[in-house]
Amino acid sequence: MKLSTVTLSLLALLSAASPARAEDPAAYPSRKIRMLLPYAAGGGGDVVGRLLADKMGKLLGQTIYIENHTGAAGTLGTQMVATSPNDGYTITVGGMTTHVLAPAIYPKLSYDSIKDFTTIGRVGTSSIMLVATKTFPANDIKELIALAKKGEPVQYGSWGVGSTGQFCAEILMQQTGIKMDHVPFNGIAKLAGDLLGGHISLATLDVATATPLVKDGSLKALAACGERSPSLPDIASYKEQGVPFDRSLSWAMYAPAGVAPPIAQKLSAALKDALGDTVVKEKLLGLGITAHFVPGNEQRDINARDIAAWKQVAKDAGIEVK
């Protein structure tokens, strides 16, 4: 073999073994961006992600495509994001469960929801609705408290152990001193179906599921956990009904930790502009989400504060998923 051939071969091997040069942030994005969602296709979180991917892709001049990876209440897909390259080409939309409640109830969670992510910014806030069948004897929190204090057993359903719905019910019990028995369901569709069938009389539902059922008279709403929802503006919040709870239940966008600040800033700016679009805001409202952009660093600090608060709620209620 000629010397020149050997030299060229060695250079080729060295080149292949060398890490690729980091992309110039000024050129970002130069290829498609993956939005990895820890939700089933067609679910609320999936719809939110697809809506933002479409608008942000147009603003950034690149396609943002969707990958759904479900499992372990959203923590499986979220872990995949945490361990993805931090080049700005993997992003996700996380809810309360994946980034605030999971750290509060999973003692061996495979990711740190603060340290393992770059927070791009808040998407918006939503509420959880406390709903009941039309024949349930209470119509608001005051009447529910009176019912529970009569000594009659009160059951409520949520869409799973550790769900936002269970936490909202636990907050209500801790703040009012009443007792209710938790009946966890395997998913929100099953829970809503059993409510409509009269198999359970009281439950917590996400506002997107609850809104059409309350508006058409199939169910009645007793209270909103979180803020009063624009989707059901006549339903008073916990705080308005005397329960001292006013924390926002938020959705936010994340990328793996260590994304270059100029790239994170481009994503953040695109998210902010997308949330300012009238069509996007209206579609989010249809899902029960009030668009409300908050910068990434500020949202990260809010998450850290909320994790500590919800950990105490979980400890007092004995909520833990092993």
From TrEMBL:
It holds the Pfam family TctC. SUPFAM superfamilies: Periplasmic binding protein-like II. Residues 1-22 form the signal peptide. Keywords: Receptor, Signal. Belongs to the UPF0065 (bug) family. PANTHER family: BLR1237 PROTEIN, TRICARBOXYLATE-BINDING PROTEIN. This is Tripartite-type tricarboxylate transporter receptor subunit TctC. The lineage of its organism: Bacteria, Pseudomonadati, Pseudomonadota, Alphaproteobacteria, Hyphomicrobiales.
